Amino acid sequence: MAEQQMYLVAHCEPCEECVREEWQFIRDGELRWEAYESCTRYPFQACERGPGIPPPPIRERILAREGTVHLPVGGPDGVPIALLRRVYGLSIAEVVAARAEGYRATPVEARYLTDPAP
């Protein structure tokens, strides 16, 4: 992702005062994500952000905190297959599986995918 930005000052190990936040949002019709870490005990701050789907570790923490939304794929009531492939970069085999079983998205991704004009 050429647009991804990261600011980082390293410290030792994470401690009980470390704060980590990750979130997704839709801005100007585009799916985006941000992650922030800081610590009051050590001089530490880190910020990452970018367009599209967050990197897997960040997305996994968002899913663990917010849960998933099961979306039907294809057909008149499902997420368009072309949109799903564009957003997630799915292979043909993954699209076939999603068409048969549906797709699990974060709540923000689900809102983005089901908006009539993403």
The SSE order reads EEEEHEHHEH
The whole-angstrom Rg is 17 Å
What structural class results from the helix and strand content? alpha+beta
Strand content: 25-35%
Q: What's the β-strand tally?
A: 6
Kindly state the percentage of residues in helix.
Answer: 25-40%
Report on this structure.
The structure is a single chain. This protein is α+β, with helices and mostly antiparallel strands and 118 residues long. Helix content is 31%, strand content 32%. The strands form 2 sheets. The chain has a 4-stranded antiparallel β-sheet. A two-stranded antiparallel sheet has the order 5-6. Strand 2 (18-27) and strand 3 form a beta hairpin. It starts with a strand and ends with a helix. 14% of the residues are buried.
Mind sketching the topology for me?
Blueprint: E1 5-8, E2 18-27, E3 30-39, E4 44-51, H1 56-66, E5 69-71, H2 81-88, H3 92-101, E6 103-105, H4 107-114
Antiparallel strand pairs: 1-4, 2-3, 3-4, 5-6
